[in-house]
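Section 3.1 - Work completed
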Amino acid sequence: MNNRRRITVFAIISAVLIAVSVLLALVFTNNGGTAELILPDTQQPSSGSDDPGAENAPLSAEVTPRTVQAVIRTLSRPDSYSRSVVVESSWEGGSAQYRINSRVKGGKVRLSVESDGWDEVKNILLTEDEITVWYGSDTSLRYTAPRPYGDSGPGLGDELGMIPTYEDVLELDPDRINDAAYVQRDGWKIMVATTDEITGYDRYYYVSVDTGLLEAAEAFDGERRVYLMQAGAAELNAPDDSLFIAGEEG
């Protein structure tokens, strides 16, 4: 990547960082309020799933479109973990794939993003106070901006990593949840299906009952899949502190 191209990239990165949260929130979330639900009495899981093993699902709460948000509220994502994520997006006449290594430790997030056609890895470092972006191992041209005031949760790291989270499911209007069930997808997941009010896309979220992390998501425009996120198994050991220093290899 020549210097002129680097300068151009970093000149626009501020606008990108500011816009990415708004754009991805628009794509992946609805603005409806979340109804307060009470976790149902303990009973054998039962759902409309066609999965023949659904009766052996590991949780004891029934999952339905009306109860799924309450069930997900009983989960919590780990404070520290590492995992790899593949994100695929497609549109009329084209597609793109992104391979993301994600390391999380408390309020800090380190993302290393690769894509076909890119000359170098894009690095994103999110600390409690700042966002820093640089390419490859050269931090001489890097952009640093303050983290948005009042944003101390994990959501911004997910948005920068191009993925929704199960918190998005909690923000759905319950009346817009079309289906919910325990399903087998590389382990037991809570599946939630909804239709996006803005795009009309059918969206599917798969939340791990073991980690509380969203491990897969899909969006369909009719029969055509326009978005896929698939995460590998999460390593729950705390990443080394050196990974959260700009310029350190990770």
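Second construct:
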Amino acid sequence: MGQRGLIGLLVASAFAVASCGSSEPSALAPGGTLPQSAGEIRTINDSAVAGDVADRVSDNTTRCIVRLHGKGSSGGATSSDGDGVLIVRPTGNEDGWGGRQWMYFPESRWAEARDVVSSALVANGCGQAVINGFSNGAAFAASLFCSGETFNGVVKGYVIDDPVTDTATDDCAPAPDVDVVMYWTTAIAQQPGTDCATIDWTCAGGTTIDVATYADNLGTTVTPSPFTDHKWYRDAPEITTFLNA
């Protein structure tokens, strides 16, 4: 998780709620100006705020849900769900569809995207976390899961929602005792082998694979989403279950 002396806050982004990814991927690229990155960390000068973050880092009990947005959307400021769980919203490491996206290949870009998430966890003092990704963010989340990434034991589970089904799950080797579930709406289903460049999707390997193979690679099954359109199931029960396990 980095040095404990590193204390910071996520930089809040101005972003449209409607751009949370419900239109991604689609033929319509969202417009608007490029949002400021919420994955950036800045030093805290306010001693009261700094002390609060330091306490959360040291007690290792702060619970976090990390939302990884879809292509064309953005992150935002950290908030609380009312039960003391922090909702952490880092911003992707690449431009995409008028907003931001997660670029998780080749390896150097994966490490870059991984560091954005790591910095967000450190900045918010997360001691336990669930990674919840949607669409492009779900595909990045799956690549983290398959790489055995736990961020030094902080991440307890991955909730992967309507992912771009690419080859990032090939040779999947998750860490022991890390839970995973994959939701699927069927709205973005493509024929296996679809060339992602022709549909302006971001895919590891450049082509899609079938959803059953994708889920099997993850070591799970396809769980139907309650939605039939490409919409984020933010209240998936596994988020709470994994976090409290």
